[in-house]
Amino acid sequence: ALEPKIAPSILSADLARLGDEVSDVLASGADMIHFDVMDNHYVPNLTFGAPVCKALRDYGITAPIDVHLMVKPVDELIHAFIEAGASDITFHPEASEHIDRSLSLVRDAGLRCGLVFNPATPLTWLDHVMDKVDMILLMSVNPGFGGQSFIPHTMEKLRQARERIEASGRDIRLEVDGGVNADNIGEIAAAGADTFVAGSSIFKARRDDDPHRYDSIIGAM
Ligand code: DX5
Ligand code: ZN
C-alpha cells in the first residue's frame, strides 16, 4: 500500500484568509490541499475556480493541489486548472461526455488524474480506463457540502475499490472524501483508503491566530 496522505479540504477554511489557512495546515503536517470546485449545476453549490488555485501558487504554496471537479461539462475547466498549477485533477465520470478523452487531457499535461464516485455511482465506470487513472476518489457523502456524515456503505465500496487496485498491479491511490474525522479514519484506512480528505473536522478544530492551531487535529489523524 502507498504511504497515507492527509488532504484538508479548503471548502471549510476561513476563505477570507485562505493563503494563511493553507500555509498553516501544511505546516501542521498536511500532505496536499484538496480543492473543491462546484458549479451550481452538477452540484447545488458554488465555490471557487482556477483563479483561486493560481492565487495560491502565486502566494507561494508549492504542495500538491488536488482539484476535485464537481462540474459539468469538465474539459474546459481541466484546461484552466492545468494552467493554474493543479497537481492532481479528478472528475465525476457521469459529468464527462468522453471519459477517456478527459483523462488523457490531464495525463498528457503530466498531472495525476482520477475518477470520482458518488455514493451510488458504480465502480464499473473504471472497467476500460483502469490503466489511465492514478487515483480513485470515493465520495462518502453526496457531493456539494462540507460537514455531512460519513455514509457507512462506503466501507464496503472501499474494499471493492482496493481489490480492483490490487488486481491492476498499479500504484493507484484510493482517496475518500466526506465525513472523515479522527474517530473514523482508522477504520477507513483498514478498509483500504490511503488518501484522506477532511474539511470540517480539520478547519473547525480551532479558529484563532495561532499558526500551530491545526497541529493536534492533524496529528490525531
Ligand atoms: C463535498 C466535498 C468535500 C468536502 C468534505 O462535496 O467534495 O471535499 O469538503 O467536507 P467534510 O470533510 O466536512 O465532510
Ligand atoms: Zn472533495
Automatic annotation (TrEMBL):
Keywords: Carbohydrate metabolism, Cobalt, Isomerase, Manganese, Metal-binding, Zinc. It is an enzyme of class 5 (isomerase). A divalent metal cation binds at H34, D36, H68, D177. GO terms for cellular component: cytoplasm. The active site is at D36 (proton acceptor), D177 (proton donor). It catalyses: D-ribulose 5-phosphate = D-xylulose 5-phosphate. Pathway: Carbohydrate degradation. GO terms for molecular function: D-ribulose-phosphate 3-epimerase activity; metal ion binding. One of its GO terms (biological process) is pentose-phosphate shunt. Binds 1 divalent metal cation per subunit. Its cofactor is Fe(2+); Co(2+); a divalent metal cation; Zn(2+). Substrate binds at S9, H68, G144, F145, G146, G147, D177, G178, G179, G199, S200. Its EC number is 5.1.3.1. Belongs to the ribulose-phosphate 3-epimerase family. Catalyzes the reversible epimerization of D-ribulose 5-phosphate to D-xylulose 5-phosphate. HAMAP family: RPE. This is Ribulose-phosphate 3-epimerase. It comes from Kushneria phosphatilytica.
